[in-house]
Write a structure and sequence with these properties.
Helix content: 25-40%
Bound molecules: N,N-dimethyl-L-histidine
Mean pLDDT: 94
Order of helices and strands: HEHHHEHEHEHEHEHHEEEEEHEE
Strand content: 25-35%
Shape: globular
Distance between the termini: 63 Å
Number of strands: 13
Strand order of the largest sheet: 4-3-2-5-6-13-12
């Protein structure tokens, strides 16, 4: 007979919930308190991020799309037959790139890597309209997806990895270099990487992009506390925290924080955690590094790539850099 105190399967936390709980416990007990930015993207957070990308004050997505459309032939020329995109979102950027390359581009095999099954399904649907494009989905972390992609050598010709949206900006410098080395090791000499990176720009523009007047970015940030309340039985008072975006000049990054408006006790039962936040104390939830064009060239060269082209959107200060695995 099953003892009544033993949790049923339905009650037992999943491995991913246990991982989330462990990280929440670890990072919220650091000084300063922190939370990893990858947890911003549950269903609500992903929808809020999509909304951010449409805001007039967050020009990154539109600037990148203009560059992809304008340089599609140069990017997909020279015999690219296979593409891997890490974090394809809705698939709209890849679709614009493929459309911009015209009809003489030849057959393409496209690998999409994302931990979110719904993102993969949506990107797959967006790409359905293109003839001669075969889509392979990898529901996996970037590292695992790249490994699977590196092993799947079904197609002759050059391979192109896409890492767009300035996602590289959310890595700290050591994590960024390790990540670029992983991308390099999944490619052969002569294959290519296309990297989309947001550039340093006037501070008022950066602050508006990360603290918009409609409060969408604030909601995106506070939603992380709602997620913890929902998934880990937390009791964060969502009205007791204020979104803060700060430009850290020395580190060349925008930081997002959640600032406690008063002294308050917080408990997160699912992470076995209880603590007190003082008035003005913050939880650091994201860093978004901004680069100069030459920094991008240097980081790629250090990671085993040679830069072939760099296109810059002058209006919104965004760069697309095409680099070849050396
Ligand atoms: C996904 N990532 C590149 C975005 C960024 O700009 O750092 C996330 C974001 N955070 C606030 N607004 C957008």
């Amino acid at each position: 007979m099953t003892p009544t105190t033993q949790p049923t399967l339905a009650e037992a936390p999943s491995a991913s919930t246990r991982g989330f709980a462990g990280e929440v416990r670890h990072f919220l007990t650091q000084q300063p308190r922190q939370l990893p930015s990858r947890y911003l993207y549950d269903d609500v957070g992903s929808a809020l991020f999509e909304a951010i990308c449409r805001l007039p004050w967050y020009p990154l997505t539109r600037a990148e799309l203009r560059l992809l459309e304008g340089h599609a032939r140069e990017i997909l020329g020279a015999g690219v037959t296979t593409i891997v995109e890490l974090g394809p979102g809705s698939g709209a950027k890849l679709s614009a790139l493929i459309a911009g390359a015209g009809h003489d581009r030849g057959r393409l095999e496209v690998h999409l890597v994302d931990v979110s099954g719904s993102a993969l399904a949506q990107a797959g649907r967006t790409l359905e309209g293109h003839s001669d494009v075969r889509v392979v989905a990898h529901r996996a972390t970037y590292e695992t997806g790249l490994r699977e992609f590196g092993l799947a050598r079904s197609n002759p010709g050059r391979r192109l990895a896409l890492f767009l949206g300035s996602n590289i900006g959310n890595f700290d410098p050591p994590g960024r270099d390790a990540f670029l080395a992983t991308v390099r090791s999944s490619l052969d000499r002569g294959d290519a990487l296309l990297l989309g990176v947001d550039l340093v720009k006037p501070v008022p523009d950066l602050l508006l992009a990360y603290d918009d007047p409609l409060g969408v970015t604030a909601a995106f940030n506070v939603n992380l506390l709602r997620r913890i309340n929902h998934e880990l039985q937390g009791d964060f008072d969502l009205r007791g925290f204020t979104h803060r975006a700060i430009w850290n000049e020395e580190a060349s990054r925008i930081e997002m924080h959640l600032r406690s408006d008063r002294r308050q006790r917080v408990a997160v039962r699912g992470a076995d955690l209880a603590f007190v936040m003082e008035p003005g104390e913050t939880i650091w939830t994201e860093s978004s590094y901004k680069y100069r064009p030459q920094d991008i060239v240097s980081m790629l060269e250090r990671s085993g790539f040679g830069v072939r082209a760099q296109w810059i959107d002058a209006a919104d200060r965004f760069a697309l850099t095409l680099a070849e695995a050396a």
